[in-house]
Amino acid sequence: MEADFINLTAENLAGEHLCCIIRSKKAHPGVEAKRQWLAERLPEGHVFRKLNAKATVFIEYAPLETAWVPIVGDNYDYLYCLWVSSGCKGKGYGKALLEYCLADARARGKSGVCMLGAKKQKSWLSDQTFAKKYGFEVVDTAGDGYELLALSFDGTVPAFAPSAKTQEIESKILTVYYSMQCPYVHRALGQVKGYCEANGVPAAFHPVDTLEKAKALPCVFNNWGVFYKGKFETVNLLDAAALQRLLKK
User: Fold this and answer.
1) What mean pLDDT comes out for the span 66-73?
2) pTM above the 0.90 mark?
């Protein structure tokens, strides 16, 4: 029997759970922030498709022109996240979701689909090995091993915005750029701020709350970017332990 998937819409967004963090009773501030973010993105063509069950199985993508990432290109879709939790693997959900995304892009006359990757898989990025099985290829690179992967339908390719390859800022203190596109950002932000305040660590936190800010970021970005001593460090969300390791550099 085919799996039952649904797309979030303006009509059902308030009543559907968001797969990233599932809450049945108590409200979660990260989820509610993401819900508000989605409400503003759905009219732009943003797609959030999920398994119609209480499970972490979903894909999220958007037209590249309105995707909050420092990547440029004509007529592409950007794949933010494809996530199938460990308990749901082996059932063909990832295949079904990615093939839906690719078929949707083709049906809408898109030139292709792209996503952020890295030479060494990052824990907060979608599995690029899986994407490469469908023909995704590296079409651009940035420092620290980050890559832009694309599946082109017409031979054209997107690219990192020039600013994304800068990977340096003037400030030497811990600096975090973030958006509320991911509900886990709320928790990570609280942990990092709490640690810095408790330990006297100078830090700056910059909300990426407009498309213009996202397109002009000085680093690769999916919803989070960290600088330290003026150098770009990671797109991975930080907890206290990861932050301690970073500050020892």
Assistant:
1) 97
2) yes
